[in-house]
Specification:
Helices cover about 75% and strands about 0% of the residues. The longest helix is centred in the first third of the chain and has 72 residues. The termini are far apart. It has about 200 residues and is mostly helical. The chain folds into two domains: about 70 residues; about 120 residues, no CATH class.
């Protein structure tokens, strides 16, 4: 009697065991799918890193080319290579006062004395004596000095730079000088002229 009764119980236990194993198998399959996705993600990352490494290798070649070009333009053994144009902060003469204004004018005065008057001949002689009292003249001289620095403080010259230098000399500086000369026809000049007549 025990034999036939054991069979349904055994079958029930087997079915329960199979259900548990089936659940565990499903869980293992789900975990394998997750791991597969993770491995694929890692593989993609590794491939991406290969691309990054390739680009870094190309970057090294690019940097080497830039260094060669830089050294061609600015030879390390050339003492003048360190003296190339570096822009200054634009002075806002309409806002400057006190020490800041004095320093900006002193910089322009040094440029006028060392470069403008010695390099631009009869054109520079149009500069009114009272130029430092006119914001317009200060602004024009600031632009002229920066243009001059940009075009002349380069250790080598190319076609574009040469063209810019010619433009500065033949068109821009003469036009700027005329503008400053017109600005200098002011009460300062009239007072000087009256003083000159009075002294005679």
């Amino acid at each position: 009697m025990t034999g036939p009764q054991q069979r349904p119980d055994q079958e029930a236990r087997n079915a329960a065991d199979i259900a548990v194993l089936s659940d565990q198998l499903d869980s293992v399959r789900a975990r394998i799918r997750e791991l597969t996705l993770t491995v694929e993600g890692i593989a993609g990352t590794v491939e991406g890193q290969r691309d990054v490494l390739r680009s870094v290798e190309n970057l090294k070649e690019t940097v080497d080319q830039l260094v060669r070009r830089w050294n061609a333009l600015f030879p390390p053994e050339d003492p003048d290579a360190q003296r190339f144009y570096s822009p200054i902060t634009t002075p806002r003469f309409w806002q400057l006062s006190g020490t800041g204004r004095e320093q900006a004018i002193a910089r322009l005065r040094a440029w006028v004395e060392q470069v403008y008057l010695s390099q631009f001949g009869h054109i520079a002689r149009k500069l009114p004596e009272c130029w430092a009292q006119h914001d317009f003249c200060l602004t024009v001289l600031d632009v002229a000095s920066e243009l001059h620095s940009c075009l002349y403080l380069q250790p080598t010259r190319n076609q574009g730079l040469l063209s810019g230098q010619a433009e500065l000399l033949t068109r821009l500086i003469p036009a700027l000088a005329d503008l400053m000369a017109a600005e200098g026809k002011c009460e300062h000049q009239r007072a000087r002229q009256l003083n000159g007549v009075a002294r005679r």
